[in-house]
Amino acid sequence: MDGIDKNKVFFQLERVWQTIGKVNIDQKRKLKEALLYIASKGYNVGHGLFGFKRVACPAEISSYAIINWDGNIYKCNGRTLKKEEKEGILLPNSTIKWNKEQRLKREITTFENDTCLKCKMLPQCIGPCSQKIIENEDKPIGNICSLQFADMDIKEYLQINFEIEMMKNIVSGIRSNNL
Q1: Which of the listed residues 11, 13, 85, 164 has the most CB atoms within 10 Å of its CB?
Q2: Could you tell me the pTM of the whole model?
Q3: Which residues contact 67 (CB under 8 A, 6 or more apart)?
Q4: pLDDT one-digit tens code per residue, 133-146
């Protein structure tokens, strides 16, 4: 991957939803090794709930789409793709006709609620994904707080983030000295 502007590439490692709650010490070790390896190559990397994400989930990115084999368009890849939950359709000219009502639901700011705004982790965790908010619109946001689903406690996350930043500084220093 020589010649790539590493400042424009970001790796975000995420646990697949089917395995939430099944983390063990060996998986944490492997995650840490992978994160530090990616950082050692000069790439930006984040993991789980935290990182340098501008959205809680890719579904909140306006240009993000899951195109199903039947032409139905979805935003959330963590749910079964049911026709009644489609968010648009692929037209014959290869453009997408979006369901405007569904689009508006996705465009919410996921952390603009009392629970998130009072949370000390808000700068790192930007709230639950829009899909969870849509599915739980009449329930307290605390029921779907992202911190409930974290693979590690906050101290472990912060430790790994610190080590990633240290690795990035080392790599950056090496690159600067080689110029």
Answers
A1: 164
A2: 0.68
A3: 73, 90
A4: 888 888 888 888 88
